[in-house]
Design brief:
about 475 residues, two-stranded antiparallel ribbon, membrane
Length: about 475
C-alpha cells in the first residue's frame, strides 16, 4: 500500500476518524468506473435503457446548500420577529435596561461564534494556498477541516440566538423563572460539550484545545507555536472573558433576569474589582510565555515582546480607577495618564505586528492559490492589500484600547462593534503570522537540506582522496 501524506486529497474524514484510501485500488476503481461509463454511453447511443440507481435520485450538493441557506434565513427572520414583538411589549423605561442585561449573557457567545467562522476562513485559505497548517500547529490526522469548523460555527450561530430569543420572549410574557434558566442551560451545555470525555463531538480536537489552554495558564514546559498563537487570540477576546465573568457571577448569585447589576454595591456590578483582573489575565499569560521563551532560548526579543504585553496593564487599571477616585482626580491626573498609556500600548503593539509578527518580504504569498480562483486574483500581489492590512491594523489597534477601558463599558453597542472589529483585525493578523511561520519552516528545511548535501559531498570527496592515496 502506498503511503499517503496527511494533507493528501485522498485523505478524508468520517466523523472524527481519518479514512485513507489505497491509491492503486482507487485508480483501478476509477478505471473500472470509466469503462462502465463508456459501455453505458454506448448502450444509450444504441437506444438501450439503463436502470436508474439510488445515487441518481440524490439532490446535488449545490441544491442542498441553497436549501440550508433558505432554512437559515427563515429561522433568522422568525427569531427577529419574535424578539422584536417581545421587546415592544415592555415599557420604554424598562426596555433599555433589559436589553443591556440580555446583551451581557449572549454577547460573549456571539463574539466567539464570529471568531470560529473567521477561523474556518483562515483554514480554507491555508488549504487553497498550500500551507500545511497541521504541521505548523503540530496537529494530528484527526484535526478539524475548515468545513467542520464552519459546521461548528453554524450550530453556535443557531443555538445562541435561539436561546436569546427564548429568553426575551419568556421574560416579556412574565415567565421570569423560565427566562432565567435560558442562559444557565446554554452555558452548562457548552461546558459539557467541551469536557465530554467520550470519543464524540470531535474528541481529539477538544482535547487539543483544552490541553493548549492548560499550557497557556501554566507554562511549565517549552512554548510551542500553538501555545502562544492561541494566547495571542485570547488577548483579542478579553471582552468575551469580561462578560463571561459577570454572567457567571450573576448566575451564581441568582441575579439573572434582574437589573441588580446596575447598582454600584452589587457584587456583579460594573464597579467590581474582578473585571480588570479578568481583562488583564490574557496579557499576563502571554507575558509569562515570553519569559519562559527567554529562559529556554536566551533570545532578548522575548523580553521585548514581554514588555509589549505589560503595556496593556496600565491601560486597564488606570481606567478602573475612575470608579474609585474623586471626579476631579480622574479628570486632572488619572485620565491623562490613561490616555498616555493607551498611546504607548497601541503604538508598541502596531510596531511589533508589522516588524516582528509579519515579514513584509514574503507578504501575501499565502494568497497564491494552487488552483485559479477569483479570490486569489484579487489579493495576491496587489499593493492595496499592503495598504489595507497595515492601515486597518493601526486604526483597530487604537480603537481596541477603548474596550480595555472599564469605564467605557456602558455604551454596549459601541463596545460590541469594537470587539467584533478587533476579532476581524486578529483574523487578518492570523494570515500573515502563519505565513511568516510557514516561510521560516521552509527556509529552515532548505538550509538543513543544503547542509546535509554539502556534508555528503565532503564525505565523498574525502573518501575518494583516501582511495587514491
Amino acid at each position: 500500500m502506498l503511503a499517503v501524506p496527511a494533507n493528501s486529497p485522498h485523505l478524508r474524514k468520517s466523523g472524527s476518524r481519518p479514512v485513507v484510501y489505497d491509491l492503486d485500488e482507487f485508480e483501478e476503481e476509477n478505471g473500472a468506473d470509466e469503462s462502465l461509463l463508456h459501455s453505458v454511453e454506448g448502450n444509450d447511443s444504441r437506444g438501450g435503457a439503463t436502470p436508474m440507481n439510488g445515487s441518481g435520485m440524490m439532490p446535488s450538493p449545490v441544491l442542498l446548500w441553497r436549501f440550508k441557506v433558505l432554512l437559515f434565513l427563515i429561522w433568522g427572520c422568525i427569531c427577529c420577529k419574535i424578539g422584536w414583538d417581545s421587546v415592544m411589549r415592555m415599557s420604554a423605561d424598562k426596555r433599555e435596561l433589559f436589553l443591556y442585561e440580555a446583551f451581557l449573557y449572549f454577547n460573549p457567545l456571539l463574539l466567539a461564534a464570529l471568531m470560529v467562522w473567521l477561523w474556518g476562513i483562515n483554514l480554507w485559505v491555508f488549504a487553497q494556498g498550500g500551507v500545511n497548517y497541521a504541521k505548523i500547529f503540530d496537529l494530528d490526522q484527526n484535526h478539524l477541516t475548515h468545513g467542520e469548523i464552519w459546521k461548528c460555527a453554524m450550530w453556535m450561530t443557531i443555538i445562541v440566538p435561539t436561546s436569546m430569543t427564548a429568553y426575551i420572549y419568556l421574560y416579556s410574557h412574565g415567565e421570569v423563572a423560565y427566562a432565567a434558566s435560558q442562559p444557565v442551560l446554554l452555558y452548562a451545555a457548552i461546558v459539557m460539550v467541551l469536557i465530554f470525555p467520550f470519543d464524540i463531538f470531535y474528541f481529539s480536537s477538544r482535547y487539543f484545545f483544552l490541553r493548549t489552554l492548560w499550557r497557556i495558564v501554566f507554562p511549565l514546559q517549552a512554548i510551542s507555536f500553538a501555545d502562544f498563537f492561541l494566547a495571542d487570540i485570547l488577548t483579542s477576546m478579553v471582552k468575551v472573558f469580561s462578560d463571561l465573568e459577570r454572567s457567571v457571577c450573576r448566575m451564581v448569585h441568582q441575579q439573572v433576569a434582574t437589573i441588580a447589576w446596575l447598582e454600584a454595591d452589587s457584587v456583579c456590578g460594573s464597579h467590581s474589582v474582578v473585571i480588570p483582573l479578568v481583562l488583564v489575565l490574557p496579557y499576563l499569560f502571554r507575558f509569562n510565555q515570553c519569559l519562559r521563551q527567554y529562559k529556554d532560548t536566551g533570545e532578548k526579543t522575548s523580553l521585548l515582546n514581554a514588555l509589549k504585553y505589560s503595556t496593556a496593564v496600565p491601560v486597564i487599571f488606570l481606567s478602573t480607577l475612575k470608579y474609585h477616585v474623586f471626579p476631579e482626580q480622574w479628570t486632572n491626573f488619572y485620565r491623562p495618564l490613561w490616555l498616555l498609556s493607551s498611546v504607548v500600548n497601541s503604538s508598541y503593539s502596531f510596531y511589533w505586528d508589522v516588524t516582528r509578527d509579519w515579514d513584509l518580504s514574503g507578504f501575501t504569498r499565502i494568497f497564491k492559490f494552487s488552483k485559479p480562483h477569483l479570490f486569489s486574483y484579487l489579493l495576491y500581489g496587489r499593493r492595496w492589500v499592503y495598504v489595507w492590512v497595515i492601515g486597518s491594523n493601526l486604526v483597530l489597534r487604537c480603537t481596541w484600547t477603548y474596550k480595555l477601558s472599564a469605564h467605557l463599558r456602558h455604551n454596549y453597542l459601541t463596545v460590541f462593534t469594537i470587539a467584533a472589529l478587533e476579532i476581524f483585525r486578529r483574523f487578518q493578523w492570523i494570515f500573515f503570522r502563519v505565513e511568516n511561520e510557514w516561510n521560516k519552516m521552509n527556509n529552515k528545511s532548505h538550509m538543513q537540506l543544503s547542509t546535509s548535501e554539502k556534508s555528503n559531498e565532503e564525505e565523498n570527496l574525502l573518501h575518494s582522496m583516501n582511495y587514491n592515496v
